[in-house]
Amino acid sequence: MNNKICNNSVKLLFFINDPLIAYTGVTKKIKSQIEAFDNICNSVFVCNLSVDNRKRLFSGEVVSGNKLLSKIPYFLRYEFSGIEEKVIANKINVVYIRYTHFSSPAFIRFLRRLQKLGINIIMEFPTFPYDEEYKTLPFKSNIKLLIDKCFRLKMAEYTKLAVCFTKNDSIFGIPAFTISNGIGFERMDYISSKLKSTYRAVNTDVDFIAVSSLEKWHGYDRFISGIYEYIKREPSKNIHLHIVGEGREVNNLVRLVDKLGVEPYVTFHGHCTGEKLDELLLKADVGVDSLARHRVNNFENNSLKSKEYLTFGLPIVKSHRDHSIDSCEYFFQCPER
């Protein structure tokens, strides 16, 4: 991060307008970011929603949450009371917002009040562009996007910097700064020790692993169809795809595996975390990243999972551009279609 914004005089609020659900990839990433900010800032505070979406927490303390109104879907995502008082009381001078598409009149007013306090506002865009992703989501999610579209251009008036993971000069009129997902040194040391102590017998089987939230843009249906075509050739090498995760696409993938008759070559492990996930990664030979980002009009990506694959010594299969790894030799670029 730019040292003009983050240094020892900075008191930073990391604002997440979502719950922090234990053991998910997103939560692990956010916790790593918080640790990184801790190393370069005077102090770091965290504001997020509770797991049940009914309370807003400021470093663990409840700052807002109406029992009746919180039953309304997405209510707290558009209600920001109590935060400004905490910002003032803790003399916070930088607010870093993980932006997950919640612009609204209330959010714009919130930004305006922060700016009047002389606070630098930084907006992180985990994915950009994101509009096309909503075509695969339920109707209520598209209502959220519609509200977002009406007000998001106003954010530029109050936001100093946009942080993104793909190359953009600006986002919604906000000057953009590109960073990359990565693995913390402690995690890298742990994986390195595991790799050194794990014996891998040489065999003719190739185990692929695909870890994700199983959305349409991950494109695992393409890989499953590829398995079907591959085994028709009676190849000398056996292959197996291990799918780890749960999401909207899982039933479609299960049906496709059944339809093509490739059940012996595909295993669905469901949601795995911790040592169980590490064991699967240690046994794998190749990591499968997204294979269909083009389905949501997104041709560039910078996933955390691809960096974890590489840390486990796994080459990657992907279909998009990734500026952080495209200069290395350890990936196979498959066509978008």
Description:
The chain folds into 2 domains: 11-178, Rossmann fold (3-Layer(aba) Sandwich); 189-331, Glycogen Phosphorylase B (Rossmann fold, 3-Layer(aba) Sandwich), CATH 3.40.50. It has 9 helices and 15 strands. The chain has helices at 25-40, 83-89, 105-116, 139-151, 185-197, 220-231, 250-260, 274-283, 304-311; strands spanning 11-19, 43-49, 56-58, 61-64, 94-98, 120-125, 161-164, 170-171, 174-178, 206-211, 239-244, 266-270, 286-288, 316-318, 331-333. It starts with 10 loop residues before the first strand and ends with a strand. The relative contact order is 0.10.
Secondary structure topology:
Layout: E1 11-19, H1 25-40, E2 43-49, E3 56-58, E4 61-64, H2 83-89, E5 94-98, H3 105-116, E6 120-125, H4 139-151, E7 161-164, E8 170-171, E9 174-178, H5 185-197, E10 206-211, H6 220-231, E11 239-244, H7 250-260, E12 266-270, H8 274-283, E13 286-288, H9 304-311, E14 316-318, E15 331-333
Parallel strand pairs: 1-2, 1-5, 5-6, 6-7, 7-9, 10-11, 10-13, 11-12, 13-14, 14-15
Antiparallel strand pairs: 2-3, 3-4, 8-9
| Topology as a string of helices (H) and strands (E) | EHEEEHEHEHEEEHEHEHEHEHEE
Percent of residues in helices comes to: 25-40%
Strand content: 15-25%
Structure class: alpha/beta
What is the CATH architecture assignment of the largest domain?
A: 3-Layer(aba) Sandwich
Let me know the number of strands: 15
Tell me, what is the CATH class of the largest domain? Answer: Alpha Beta
Radius of gyration: 22 Å
> First CA to last CA: what distance?
36 Å
Largest sheet geometry: 9 strands, mixed
Mean pLDDT comes to 91
* Global morphology: globular
CATH topology-level fold name of the largest domain: Rossmann fold
Given as residue ranges, the uncertain stretches (5+ residues, pLDDT < 50) are none
User: Strand arrangement, largest sheet?
Assistant: 4-3-2-1-5-6-7-9-8
As for the number of domains, it is 2
How many helix segments?
Answer: 9
